[in-house]
Amino acid sequence: MGWNAIRIWTVLVYGFMFLPVAVVVLLSFNANQFGSFPMSGVSLRWFEELWHNDAVMRAFRTSIVLGLMTAVISTTLGILASLALVRYNVPGRNTITTLLIAPILVPEVVLAVALLLFLNWLGIGKSFALLLAGHVIFTLPFVILVVQARLVSIKRDVEEAALSLGANPVQTFFSVTLPLMLPAVAAGALFAFTISFDDITGTLFWKPGGVETVPTQIFSMLRNSISPEINALGTVMIIMTVGLPLLGAAVARKLAMKSGT
Amino acid sequence: MSSVTLNNIVKRFGNFTAVHRSSLDIAEGAFVTLLGPSGCGKTTNLRMIAGLLDPTEGEILIGGKRVNDVPIHKRNLGLVFQNYALFPHKTVAENVAFGLKYRDVAKSDIPAKVEAALDLVQLPDVGHRYPKELSGGQQQRIALARAIVIEPDVLLLDEPLSALDANLREDMRVELKRIQARIGVTTVFVTHDQSEALAMSDQIVVMSAGRVEQVGAPEDVYNTPASEFVANFLGASNILEAKCTGTRADGDVTLEAPIFGQMTVPAAKAPRVEGAGPAKLVVRAEKLLLSKEKAAEGVVSVPATVETVDYQGQAVRYFVRAGETQLQAINMIDGHPFAEGSQINLHLRPQDCAALPGE
């Protein structure tokens, strides 16, 4: 009896969480203008309309460019910070780690307002660069956490072996350390991309006028009407933010198996 | 191939002195072992030679040239670690070829050199495999191949056998010595295992608490320990507080020792005893023989009681009591060991003893 109750409860909880998502995905293939059951037919009509919606496509391009840039910058900074914190005896290393991780702990609204006010105080207006900086700030902790954990597990003596064989520190990094870190680096980059792609709170505060990302675009579309296009857009978002990490994890597993680490 | 010289080296970490002022000359082509318990500074010395640590004071010379300011990747050293430290993401052949890429070696010559190195370590057919597919012993051979293929001036081995199983360790010991003799590279070997040190080295540097206790050929260090620490670290010894009653004309030293009475120790085995005064008699556990028989001419014999028997197969370690003193004896046996409680005679040849100055 006890176990069955837990089973049923579990199914209900998951159902509550995921059924709405399933409904969105399902309705995005609905042929009918009005999102209601029973569906009158299956069609890709809303995806097609999405494709021809300039505002949505622009938001898409913005989100992808923003996500990619965030991923590249966050990953680069994250690798450098992790190297410094793990491999070198930086004074105040624990404090720095805490500060770098802090953006995860601070409520995003607070972070968003704080950065905005700070830049206002400096007299710098909203811009795409600010938006990018904001995204970097709150994706960086994820990259650092993942990369640092990996770096700790890479033994120092492998790098020392490379050095002793004549590779200088930079060559050692690129031929030994980085390849060994690659699964974590890829995971960190994917995290950064998907978090940036997904984000709405900070983005609403930071985006300059006229610039929309996919989430803010959905948000503003919702304010006018509930168009079935939104379902299609939601489906695309889900594919990107769930599919990409899954794909990444599979690739990382394959890489790790090959190198045996 | 080059000599290595440490000149008044000191290494401090904060307030802790890992290596006290010490100097060391390692001849070209020699196999020198730094031997000592963990924390004695042997690895610190090795890492300073490698360039992984900077000495706080003093200078390091390789081939007569000061290398203090030369970074590790320009020192041309072969380094082998306890945990192999192979590159897990590269094949065996890529591992071995790694150092060649940073040297003036034509790309077309690399495969032949890699093959030769793998032949030398007797693993010719594993080039395409990844390190994790090999056993520990094989991985260590690859690590050795990777270190020697670059024809290093000095080969540095940091406890390379410690991670291996006991049997494999002895095979690798022979193998390592064979390869070293074949290529004749100056080798510095760090270990805490006295039998490895005795078996492999041309010279042993015994270290304790950051200081060099003794430098010498294995037989010298073993037979004529320079300190109580060395006597106890290399094999088991009984150290008895004695009194030196004088030096004979031929340099031999006469001691008045407890239990054994008057003993004459050859001059060669008491180089540090200077005339009458307090002294220590060093009796190696293997030189103290238990017997029911009477002693032959020139052998000191004292009665004793067997207290503990530690049977080890071909040898037995006894703890015996003679008067108030407990002594340790390691005897080879065939047949049965003496039973606990047996009354026996301890036989000792004075020339097998060594003497140290007393405090």
UniProtKB/TrEMBL annotation, chain A:
Bilayer disposition of the protein: Multi-pass membrane protein
Alphabetic keyword roster: Cell membrane, Membrane, Transmembrane, Transmembrane helix, Transport
GO BP terms: transmembrane transport
Domain ABC transmembrane type-1: 60-248
A single GO cellular-component term on record: plasma membrane
TM segment ranges: 12-31, 64-86, 98-122, 128-152, 173-197, 230-252
Primary location class: membrane
Compartments, as annotated in UniProt: Cell membrane
PANTHER family: PUTRESCINE TRANSPORT SYSTEM PERMEASE PROTEIN POTI
Family named by the database record: Belongs to the binding-protein-dependent transport system permease family. CysTW subfamily.
Protein name according to UniProt: ABC transporter permease
TrEMBL record, chain B:
Domain of life: Bacteria
Keyword Cytoplasm: no
GO molecular function: ABC-type polyamine transporter activity; ATP binding; ATP hydrolysis activity
Residue ranges constituting the ABC transporter domain according to the UniProt record: 4-234
EC supergroup of this enzyme: translocase
NCBIfam families named among the record's database cross-references: potA
GO cellular component entries: ATP-binding cassette (ABC) transporter complex
Record text on subunit structure and interactions: The complex is composed of two ATP-binding proteins (PotA), two transmembrane proteins (PotB and PotC) and a solute-binding protein (PotD).
Described purpose of this protein according to its UniProt entry: Part of the ABC transporter complex PotABCD involved in spermidine/putrescine import. Responsible for energy coupling to the transport system.
Keyword vocabulary terms for this entry: ATP-binding, Cell membrane, Membrane, Nucleotide-binding, Translocase, Transport
UniProt-recorded name of the protein: Spermidine/putrescine import ATP-binding protein PotA
Keyword Translocase: yes
Similarity annotation: Belongs to the ABC transporter superfamily. Spermidine/putrescine importer (TC 3.A.1.11.1) family.
Reactions catalysed, as given in the entry: ATP + H2O + polyamine-[polyamine-binding protein]Side 1 = ADP + phosphate + polyamineSide 2 + [polyamine-binding protein]Side 1
EC number assigned by the record: 7.6.2.11
Database matches in PROSITE patterns: ABC_TRANSPORTER_1 (PS00211), ABC_TRANSPORTER_2 (PS50893)
PANTHER family, per the entry: SPERMIDINE/PUTRESCINE IMPORT ATP-BINDING PROTEIN POTA, SPERMIDINE_PUTRESCINE IMPORT ATP-BINDING PROTEIN POTA
